[in-house]
Specification:
Chain A: One of its GO terms (molecular function) is ABC-type transporter activity. The complex is a heterodimer of chains A (324) and B (309). With 324 residues, chain A is mostly helical. Chain A contains 13 helices and no strands. The radius of gyration of chain A is 23 Å and the shape is globular. In chain B, helix 3 packs parallel to helix 5. The chains are: A mainly alpha (324), B alpha/beta (309).
């Protein structure tokens, strides 16, 4: 028995060749035209948003200990805030980086050649996923530093250490959110043989969550917890059901997480009863640890979703025949 | 024994792609896996490399199990797929260096080997051009360069001459033949039987997932065609000539073919044939001894199988 169980184990490490794949894919991403277009788009929108945000902030004279965080979230009418821009563009960027990860290898007839090298399929998939994530992390970091630098120039107020910590956590949440979309793109790239179909499918998922899930969640909440005008508790129940359903969407999770992280005044992400507010100093900021605790379930949800999607792509890819 | 399979079977749903394959290939052999498209050659190759899982049976390549020890196996076995593709925007050099890194070769060694294989395949001058602009023949040579990069003990080539013009195909086959002198075992698959028959030490003929014939080309010809000597002649008039030639004791079969006749005989009986034709009062225009071709072996074998059924 001992012998058979050891001989059944795969030889060697599944990570063999991971870094070779990682660096090749990352180099591909960074030099691709696709990336150039995305960079220009994201850069323009970020600069625009920060400029507009800073303009708004300069006009308000009230004292604010979290000026840098306001730059992220302040919007001036035609332009949305920096955060809104990111939550709009990053899923698209992730899809653009991942939609042809696996089916691209099929259509270029390179897959069988690569898999004939001494590596496992794990290394190929991980390498591609990590390269996509690292590319986005790189853009995000550059963008973040740019925004901090610009706001220093426009506002002339150095950020406090707590602000920087909150901003870095915000970056982490954004990366987790992008990971979800990269995971979705990876799954569609394994599922669909044609890159165009795969891109379309991933964008369809994105549209579904961005536009339709809100409506569907409302309908579902109404069906599950109908509102009774004579029972005030039913209203609370419906609100809670709505929240639960809308939290199935990564967009909601991300929006809530950054709300808690970037706005220290936020004390709860769900409905709050008057009785719960007794003795609370409204508007007074929460310490960083408490805000982080508030965003923790959303953050772990995003990370779990990313891992789950990667696992789905992994299982699908392991079973896929090498031959087209 | 370098490659050994026992009862190797692969089913896709209800379709049987390969059935009960018993393959034994010795070190230093050039073995041809031949048969029409869809007869199970590529599936067999993928199972040998562990790229697809067998439904039943055993595989050992260099004594290793492809399902359990794929890394040490693939470190020693080079594979050139039938439709070889490269990253078109990368240069030949970059494509090779990616493969070298996947094989974990140290940079200095990788560089030396890359220079050597590119030189050998005659690609040194185009090494830094993007592969997207390469011709089919150049890609095929780059594919072989990549295979040689890991200095393999076994090389598996799937349809190596597919899509090459006759000259390039012959050139490519000569390179494959030269691998034998380096002690590399070569397994190649092809549906172009006549093209590869010259370079194979042994061949196995596939039909509907089964290995139906195996052996040296001459042996197979002897076994299937009855006699290894085939004589083609053209003469006018042909009337009554066939019967007359059939009467010769060495002739086993006479067939009309275009303007002439094709004989099969147990010996080279060209003088007797010429005599017989002239005695029949016909004008002899040509008389040729044909080398046995695998295409014929294959066609004849299945003719007989069909007749028997």
């Amino acid at each position: 028995m001992q012998h058979s169980s050891t001989s059944r184990r795969r030889e060697g490490s599944p990570w063999t060749g991971l870094w070779a794949v990682f660096f090749k894919e990352m180099a591909d991403h960074l030099s691709s035209t696709r990336m150039r277009i995305l960079e220009v788009l994201i850069l323009l929108s970020a600069v625009g948003a920060v400029y507009a945000g800073a303009q708004t902030l300069r006009q308000t004279i009230s004292e604010d200990p979290f000026l840098l965080l306001r730059v992220f979230t302040a919007a001036q009418d035609p332009l949305p805030s920096f955060v809104a821009f990111l939550s709009f563009f990053l899923p698209l960027a992730a899809i653009a980086l991942g939609f042809d990860a696996i089916n691209g290898e099929y259509s270029r007839n390179t897959l069988s050649r690569i898999l004939a090298q001494p590596i496992y399929r794990d290394a190929l998939l991980w390498g591609k996923f990590l390269a996509g994530l690292a590319t986005i992390a790189l853009i995000l970091l550059a963008l973040f530093l740019l925004v901090v630098g610009l706001s220093l120039i426009f506002l002339g107020v150095p950020p406090s250490s707590e602000e920087v910590a909150r901003a870095l956590l915000f970056l982490l949440a954004t990366l987790a959110y992008t990971g979800v979309w990269l995971g979705i793109a990876l799954v569609t790239s394994v599922l669909f043989r044609s890159a165009a179909t795969s891109a379309l499918a991933a964008i369809a998922v994105w549209l579904f969550f961005a536009l339709f899930w809100g409506i569907i969640a409302q309908l579902l909440a109404q069906a599950v917890a109908p509102f009774d005008p004579f029972n005030p508790e039913s209203e609370l129940r419906q609100t809670e059901a709505l929240l639960a359903f809308s939290r199935l969407s990564p967009n909601t999770l991300y929006a809530e997480a950054i709300q808690a992280l970037l706005n220290p005044g936020v004390r709860s992400l769900g409905p709050v009863l008057i009785s719960q507010l007794e003795g609370a100093l409204l508007g007074s900021p929460l310490p960083l640890g408490q805000s982080f605790l508030l965003a923790w379930p959303q953050l772990t949800g995003l990370i779990a979703l990313t891992i789950g999607l990667f696992a789905v792509a992994y299982v699908l890819f392991q079973r896929r025949e090498v031959r087209a | 024994m370098v490659i050994e399979t026992q009862g190797l079977t692969k089913r896709y749903g209800r379709v049987v792609a390969v059935e009960g394959l018993e393959l034994r290939i010795e070190a230093g052999e050039v073995y041809g896996l031949l048969g029409p498209n869809g007869s199970g050659k590529t599936t067999t190759i993928l199972m040998l490399l562990g790229l697809t899982e067998p439904s039943a049976g055993q595989v050992r390549v260099l004594g290793l199990d492809p399902a359990r020890e794929p890394l040490s196996l693939k470190r020693q076995v080079g594979y050139l797929p039938d439709s070889v593709g490269f990253y078109g925007e990368m240069s030949a050099w970059e494509n090779l260096s990616y493969i070298a890194r996947l094989n974990g070769l140290p940079p200095a060694l990788a560089k030396a080997r890359m220079e050597r294989v590119l030189e050998r395949m005659g690609l040194t001058e185009v090494a830094h051009r993007p592969v997207g602009a390469f011709s089919r023949g150049m890609r095929q040579r780059l594919g072989l360069a990549e295979v040689l990069l890991k200095e393999p003990k076994v090389v598996i080539l799937d349809e190596p001459t597919l899509g090459l013009d006759p000259e390039a195909a012959q050139e490519f086959l000569q390179i494959i033949r030269s691998l034998k002198s380096e002690g590399i075992t070569v397994l190649l698959s092809s549906h172009l039987l006549h093209q590869v028959q010259a370079i194979c030490d042994r061949v196995g003929l596939f039909h509907k997932g089964k290995l139906v014939l195996e052996g040296r080309v001459e042996e197979l010809a002897q076994r299937v065609l009855g006699g290894a000597y085939r004589i083609c002649l053209e003469a006018t008039p042909l009337n009554g000539l066939a019967e007359r030639l059939q009467a010769l004791p060495e002739v086993s079969r006479v067939q009309a073919e275009g303007q002439g006749l094709r004989l099969e005989a147990t010996q080279d009986i060209r003088p007797q044939v010429a005599k017989a034709v002239l005695e029949a009062g016909a004008a002899l225009q040509s008389l040729v001894l044909e080398q046995p071709s695998l295409d014929e072996v294959y066609a004849r074998y299945f003719q007989e199988v069909r007749h028997a059924a």
